[in-house]
C-alpha cells in the first residue's frame, strides 16, 4: 500500500486541523414524540481536515503522489494520524487546494477520510 511521502510535512498545522468522528447511527423523526435512533453500522468513516505549509518542490511531490501514486484519490494510503500518532488508512476526498503565502511557500488544504 502507498504511504504518505517522507519528503512532505509529516504533521499538519495545528490551526488547520479538524477531526469529525464517524456517524454510525440513523435518526428517524416521528410525527409525534421523540425521534427514533438506531445504530446503522459499527464501522464508520472519520473525517480529517488539515492544512500544511509547503514549498513549490513539495507541492510538485504532492501532485505526483495524488495524480499518479494514488490515482487521483482513488486509492487509499497509510498516513500517521496527527492526534493518535498511529498509522491509519486514508483516502483524499477532494483534490488538494493551494493558496500562496509568499513567493516560495503555499498553504495546502487536504480533506481525508480515515477508513475503518
Care to describe what's here?
This protein is mainly beta and 116 residues long. It has one domain. The chain contains 1 helix and 8 strands. Strands 1, 4, 5, 6, 7 and 8 form a 6-stranded antiparallel beta sheet that branches. A two-stranded antiparallel sheet has the order 2-3. A hairpin with a 4-residue loop joins strand 7 and strand 8. The mean pLDDT is 93.
Write the layout of secondary structure elements.
Elements: E1 18-20, E2 25-28, E3 36-39, E4 46-55, H1 56-69, E5 77-80, E6 87-92, E7 97-100, E8 105-114
Antiparallel strand pairs: 1-4, 2-3, 4-8, 5-6, 6-8, 7-8
Spans of at least 5 consecutive residues whose pLDDT stays below 50 are none
Largest sheet entry: 6 strands, antiparallel
User: Which structural category do the helix and sheet elements fall into?
Assistant: mainly beta
H/E series, N to C?
EEEEHEEEE
Please tell me what the overall shape is.
elongated
Mean pLDDT equals 93
Total DSSP helices: 1
Q: What proportion strand?
A: 35-45%
Distance between the termini: 15 Å
Oligomer: single chain
Work out the number of β strands: 8
What value does the Rg take, in angstroms? 17 Å
Q: What is the count of distinct domains?
A: 1
Helix fraction?
A: 10-25%
Summarize the structure.
The chain has 1 helix and 8 strands. It is mostly beta strands and 116 residues long. Helix content is 12%, strand content 39%.
Amino acid at each position: 500500500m502507498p504511504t504518505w511521502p517522507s519528503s512532505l510535512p509529516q504533521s499538519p498545522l495545528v490551526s488547520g486541523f479538524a477531526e469529525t468522528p464517524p456517524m454510525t447511527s440513523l435518526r428517524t423523526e416521528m410525527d409525534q414524540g421523540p425521534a427514533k435512533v438506531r445504530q446503522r453500522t459499527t464501522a464508520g468513516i472519520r473525517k480529517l481536515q488539515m492544512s500544511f505549509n509547503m514549498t513549490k518542490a513539495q507541492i510538485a511531490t504532492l501532485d505526483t503522489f495524488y495524480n499518479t501514486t494514488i490515482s487521483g484519490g482513488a486509492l487509499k494510503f497509510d498516513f500517521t494520524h496527527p492526534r493518535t500518532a498511529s498509522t491509519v488508512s486514508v483516502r483524499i476526498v477532494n483534490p488538494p487546494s493551494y493558496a500562496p503565502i509568499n513567493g516560495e511557500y503555499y498553504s495546502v488544504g487536504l480533506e481525508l477520510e480515515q477508513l475503518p
